[in-house]
Amino acid sequence: MALTAKLLRLYQVDKQVRGLQSRVKTAERFLTLRERELAELDAKRDSLKAQSRQLQATAHNDESEIKGIDEHITKLRDQLNSATTNKQYSALLTEVNTFKADRGAIEERALETLTRLEEVNGQLEELQNKRGDIVKLRDHAAAERDEKAAEIKSRLEELQAERDVAAGELPADVLQEFESELELREDEVMAPIEEMNRRAMEYCCGACQVLLPMEIVSASINGNTLTKCSNCNAFLYIEEATREAALPSGKR
Ligand SMILES: [Zn+2]
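That is the input. Now the predicted structure with zinc ion docked in place:
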């Protein structure tokens, strides 16, 4: 088999391998997206939980502060009832009123805290529900990925074995060049020579469409030399129909 034909075989098997793997890769990408979404929600949930805890602690403090003031006011009222002078009475009354004003301010603050706490808890609940949905989607994506991987497993093994054989038939330097180009250009690592104008003997590279020098086209038509596009560096091959059409009629 000519060198170009050997390389073409490797290229075609490799293309099939990548085609199969791309199905799993698509499923894998969906899974990664879901997992990222879930991680974002969890971070938000943790922050809301922390806020909720802090607000609860503040609410608790406000409550015990109010309780303390109430006890104090009760005590002052008892003293007020047993006051013996006017001066004593009005001093105690002022004190009661001061405590009452303080109590009002704390109560107002406590109400704000409780409203905020309710809001945060509402957000938490909403987020938990959403999280439940996303967990389902994530699990579904994971199952899909596993299913796709299982589906291609045996065919992929076959193709990989075929690929090893095809690669083994190539000279080491050609294989190395092919592999490194493959990483950069994938499907465009090889390109067919395309006929543009048969009469004028004009042929172009199937990857970049640039007109190819006649000596490259002739080398490909005649067979055993490995040729590359001088513009985009793709390995070139010629399809049988193009080759036959290019040969003088006597040689066909
Ligand atoms: Zn090209």
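The CA atoms of residues 99 and 105 lie 10 Å apart.
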